[in-house]
Amino acid sequence: MAQIFHPSTNTISRVSIFGGIGFIIALILVLVALNRSAYVSEIGVARAQPVPFSHKHHVADDGIDCRYCHTSVEKSSFAGIPSTKICMNCHTQIWPDSAALAPVRESFRTGQAIQWTRVYNLPGFVYFDHSIHLNKGVGCATCHGRIDQMPLTWRVNTLHMDWCLECHRAPELFVRPREQVFNMAYRPPADQLALGRKLIKEYDIRPLTGCSTCHR
Amino acid sequence: MSNEMGDLQTIRQRLAGAHGKEYWRCLEELADSEAFEQLLRAAYPRQAAAWADSLDRRGFLKLMGASLALAGLSGCLSPAPAPTDEKIVPYVKQPEEIIPGKPLYFASAMPLAGYGRGILAESHMGRPTKIEGNPSHPASLGATDIFMQASILELYDPDRAQVLSHAGRIATWDNFFAAINGEMAAQRLNGGASLAILTETITSPTLSFQLQQLLEKFPKARWYQYDAAARDAAHGGARLAFGDVLDAIYRFDRAEVILSLDADFLYYGPGALRYARDFSNKRRVVGAESGMNRLYVVESMPTVTGSMADHRWALAPRALAAFAHAVAGGLGVANIGASQASEGVDQRAVDAVVRDLQNHRGRGIVLAGDHQPAALHALAHAMNQTLGNSGATVHYIEPVEAQPVDHGHSLRALVGAMGAGQVQGLFILGGNPVYSAPADVQFTELLARTRFTVHLSPYENETSALCRWRVPEAHYLESWSDVRAFDGTASLIQPMIAPLYGGRTAHELLAVLLGETGRASYELVRAYWQQQSKARSDFEQFWRAALHDGVVPQSAAQTRQAALKQSSSPPSVGTTTDQAPQAGAAPAAAPLEVLFRPDPSILDGRFANNGWLQELPKPVTKITWDNVILLSPSTGERFGIGRRIGSSGGERGNIYADMVELEVGGRRVRGAGWIVPGHADGCVTVHLGYGRARAGRVGSRLGFNANTIRTAEARWRATGATLRKLADQYPVACTQFHQVMEGRDLIRAGTLEQFRSDPAFVQANDKHAHAESLYPGFKYEGNAWGMAIDLNSCIGCNACVVACVAENNIPVVGKAEVRRGREMHWLRIDRYYKGESDNPEMHHQPVPCMQCENAPCEVVCPTHATTHSEDGLNDMTYNRCVGTRYCSNNCPYKVRRFNFFQYQDFATPSLKLQRNPDVTVRSRGVMEKCTYCVQRIRQAQIEARKDNRAIADGEIATACEQACPAQAIVFGDINDPGSRVTKLKGGALNYGLLTELNTRPRTTYLARLKNPNPELTKE
Fold first, then answer.
1. Could you say which residues from 880 to 909 on chain B have a Cβ atom under 8 Å away from some Cβ of chain A?
2. B713 and B799: one domain?
3. Do B151 and B187 fall within a single domain?
4. What pLDDT band is residue B509 in, cutting at 50, 70 and 90?
5. Quick check: B643 and B2 in contact, CB under 8 A?
6. Do residue B82 and residue A121 have CB atoms under 8 angstroms apart?
7. Set of chain B residues whose Cβ sits within 8 Å of the Cβ of A35
8. B266 or B562: which carries more pLDDT confidence?
9. pTM for the complete prediction?
């Protein structure tokens, strides 16, 4: 009786078994990469806004402090999106006829709010508080990047939980003196670890990693 | 076989025997009936049956392998990804006070049956989400009741009246105003002779001023009042006793001995929150030197107040009156024939009560219930006068109501006038008289025939259906108004939100009648107060202070001297017209008495469409979503009424009760018969508020309408009723059978005397856990949160349960799901009985999550969805939960709740506004449980950490603690030796539940103490 399988079948079966395993591993790696890619995480993707607002212009060129617009960032969980009135404080005088600012004037006249598109958005089961982070020496730029260099605003971090935990587990690697929190150009010193340890003591920073710190 | 409850004889024998269980929760348990055993076995399999399935090992492994592989897949998806184009909408001009993300609190008041209770409304950027009590308000003192908590849901109820309509078609306000102006122009010609206004109880100064104005302008117009919850008997009693209507204010903070004649003063009525606070303050026991007040309760249907009694007697109304009479006779109240109807009265009890009251002259209170006849109120007043309690523990004030008429008479007068054709224009401001009027008042027919009818109402209900004009009424959280509390203190009501459905207030409607169309409530209320304080130059300051504080300063009514009428011969209470059955063994054919009472959860039906209140287990019966015909075990036995535990129908229990037909004076009603231990024999109790035809999608067609067998003469009590058992059975959603804890040492109680002689008696029988471990214990540095619940103070009023629902976005599941044991309440109140079934002692035990230090739930969670926090909280992370329910299986306290279905209503837009933005809204397939209001803890922690300070004791109040009128729940840091909770836990009364399991619960209980009269306990 002739052999049912040709000897090359051995090769084919080896290739398909090991190749299959390889394929699954590759697939997983691709999925992980995809999950962290700009395509999914939207890192570096500037969102279209009703008004082409430039942080670069307002922060870097004009030197306006973050808190002039984000009024509740030191007091509340929510940093606050400026009301139309805050825009108009300046723009009744500066560029009062600019076409780009038409939606702002329209909003001020009609009382209809401007609808901005969220850039940083957390899922509904995550409760983040801006005020405590600033208070414990986490700079704006630590999470939001060099916003003073963004003509349009994009996200610079994944906002994945492991990213949050990087700092919650080892805050000494990231904290800075309170007076540097709003400084966009702040560069950590060479001995960040020493500074971090000192600040942790001084500000009484506790690395909170319990679930209910963020999930309630 | 319907009567599986075990016959009464068996139960009595078991109780008599030494081996009877001391504490029990339902009669079935007491009788150890077979069905109950089965139920228990189904809920808690003692031995999981051996693998009896045909599935072999190989098949099992295959299945497990596949599910494991697939389980991993769900982890690949990022959970609930944030929508990519979510909009963020800032203010155009941000109000100065608002910090986005932080709530504001506004003082206001909630009117309930006319009387105000002070509130603080939590508002998130203009959206009220939660009601708290106003600590400065005398009727609240910071506490809330179930109605205040649930009123926030009413605000957002999608079934509220949303449009103005005329003869069933949507109309415009201009049409409406024109129609009224036409009508009023016609009325003016004859002085308003055919004009009638029908209101509920009114205490609002502005509204009563407007009504006076209207009556001046239309001198022949008539103002009628009908409120199903009116306090006619109390007013009538005062009129009998003093010749004048007075309101009595009780000072429970000064009372040592209290005799309640069917008065549910801890739960029901405008001063209940205050009374509960004062009462429980007199019962706190710290050490042997602490004293306690003593409460005697005589009542027919067990109530919250009855459950707190040191001595309680279950008496049918006649016997109750006779008892009151005998006590009055013993006290030497003048003008009482001592011989009256005293047969069958327990003379020993009467003598003991009399002596106790006499030994505490000026430090006692005798009070009668709102549903007792006026004569009994008069008798109570007379007793207080005789004992010198008047002026000491009982104060009298001018009536708080604008016009304290007898509402029963008033309604009949209106119907008389309507029948005689004297009413052409009828304005009904609130209320639902078509539903709530007694059956023999022909209001409904006459209303339909009246020419011009207007109904201002928050809901389109039975009455609206028959009115030409249906006007949506603004909710109190949408209105400017004012209201007075039980002691006369006035509060301004300010709106938290613009009317969601364009509703108007009664003030605005009356302004239209007065020819001031378009005047807003704000203007009207402010103008009234401005006029009241003409002398003031600083009105603006006064107004702002009153708004800010929630009370108008110095507005409480002055106390008044009250002297008994000389000629008064009060109390012919014992000689009512009916032929009384002899006390003792009633013959089988003896007619029954029927007691009508407002439902404990939905009152007279005004909260019928409120899902939170419908799903709330009623304080004594633990029934949800229904009313039933309540009767005593003996009466049940007499008519052969029983119930059956459904064997199929879910996890825990499903109860089928025998249907009965109740007939009074030729009128019949059918409902489920339900046996309540502690109910008086020879009478049945039915609750009002159910059987609504047009309540809304939640409240319609539940239970039966007891108003159909009520008559105007006998609004609270009917005699000569007959009961007939029907063949069919009715499923009742009762949580009494759920989560049974199997006779362990869960509730501990004793007497004050026992505690004084042996302070350690509570902890004496503590079973010690095997706490040996190879691992070192976890050290809680920083805060360690704990809770102590004082069973001695807890009155079982349910306020904490609704507060928890409101704070934590807990869904309503509906009757069908409650019957499967799937109610979602994170906090339940267990009710235990002790002693004989005719008149057992009742104990309440609130059971939230115990936050065990060695939590059995945590170790079995395969996804680490439930873990321990550094401050000892048993965290629940919803987004990790995959719904295995292992944790719930392993929880010895059965406090975990599972979303079997999509219980949360994500579709209705108005309900989204109510939700607490600080708590995740859970979806299907997720386990949830009490978190100690972790959102409040974390918020306080953040505030404290920002200032680099420690959290002060009392800075964090959980929702249940904050709501509790009796201050029975104390939350705090057990690492802080000075905190209230540490001190309570260090006391001799402290004990934990099931500590022998070495769960180390953070929630512990203080044992209940009673203060019985030694005269009555001696054998």
1. 880
2. no
3. no
4. very high
5. yes
6. yes
7. 78
8. B266
9. 0.89
- What band does B25 get if pLDDT is binned at 50, 70 and 90? low
Which chain A residue lies closest to B867 (C-alpha atoms)? A211
Residue of B nearest to A47 (CA): B85
Chain A CB contacts of B93 below 8 Å: 83-85
Closest A-chain CA to B866: A211
Same domain, A167 and A67: yes
Same-domain status, A145 and A62: yes
Please tell me which residue of chain A has the smallest CA distance to B940: A132
Q: What is the pLDDT of residue B566?
A: 62
Q: Is B85 on the interface with A (CB under 8 A)?
A: yes
Q: Are residues A72 and A160 in the same domain?
A: yes
pLDDT for the residue A104: 93
Task: Give the separation between CA A127 and CA A145, rounded to whole angstroms.
Answer: 21
Residues A106 and A177 in one domain: no
Nearest to B749 by CA among B464, B986, B1008: B1008
Q: Is B883 within 8 Å of B925 (Cβ atoms)?
A: yes
Instruction: Give chain B's domain count.
Output: 6
User: Would you tell me which residues 3-32 of chain A have a C-beta closer than 8 angstroms to some C-beta of chain B?
Assistant: 31
Count CA atoms closer than 13 A to B686's CA, side-chain side.
33
Whether A48 is in a domain gets the answer no
CATH number at residue B380: 3.40.228.10
Encode pLDDT of B192-239 as tens digits: 889 999 999 999 999 999 999 999 999 999 999 999 888 889 999 998
Regarding whether B466 and B367 lie in a shared domain, the answer is no
A123 lies in the same domain as A107? no
Report CB contact under 8 Å: B90, A80. yes
Count of structural domains, chain A: 3
- The domain of B907 spans 749-760+781-1012
ipTM: 0.89
For residue B52, being part of any structural domain is answered with no
Angle between helices B506-513 and B205-217 (to 10 degrees): 20
Q: Are residues B393 and B454 in the same domain?
A: no
List the domain range (segments joined by +) for residue A107: 82-115
C-alpha B319/C-alpha A58 separation (Å) is 84
Q: Do B102 and A80 lie within an 8 Å CB cutoff?
A: no
Grade residue B805 by pLDDT with cuts at 50, 70 and 90.
very high
My answer on whether B926 and B1007 are in the same domain is yes
Residue B73 forms contact with A (CB below 8 Å): no
Instruction: Say yes or no: B863 contacts chain A, CB-CB below 8 A.
Output: no
Same domain flag for B330 and B368: yes
Question: How many angstroms separate the Cα of A45 from the Cα of each of A41, A131, A150, B89, B236?
Answer: 9, 26, 11, 21, 76
Does residue A210 belong to the interface with chain B, where contact is any CB pair within 8 Å?
A: yes
A188 and A199 both lie in a single domain: yes
- CA end-to-end span of chain A: 71
How many beta carbons lie within 10 A of that of residue A215, not counting itself?
20
Residue B479 lies in a domain: yes
A175 assigned to some structural domain: yes
Shared-domain flag, residues A173 and A105: no
Neighbours of A8 (CB within 10 A): 8
Q: Please, what is the average pLDDT of chain B? A: 85
Looking at beta carbons, which pairs linking B756-765 to residues 24 or more positions away fall under 8 Å?
A: B756/B288, B759/B287, B759/B288, B759/B988, B760/B988, B762/B988, B762/B989, B762/B990, B762/B991, B762/B1007, B763/B988, B763/B990, B763/B991
Same domain, A98 and A144: no
Contacts of A215 in chain B (CB under 8 A): 875, 877-879, 920
B735 CA to chain A: closest CA distance, Å? Answer: 28
CB contact (8 A) between residue B873 and residue A210: yes
In chain B, positions 768-827, which contact chain A (CB-CB < 8 Å)? 782
Across the interface, whether the CB atoms of B920 and A124 are under 8 A apart is answered: yes
Question: Which stretches of chain A drop beneath a pLDDT of 70?
Answer: 1
Indicate whether B570 belongs to any domain. Answer: no
Q: Are residues B511 and B650 in the same domain?
A: no
Using the Cβ of A85 and the Cβ atoms of chain B, whether some distance falls under 8 Å is answered with yes
pLDDT digits (tens, 9 = 90+) for B138-183: 999 999 999 999 999 999 999 999 999 998 899 999 999 999 999 9
Residue B336 within a domain: yes
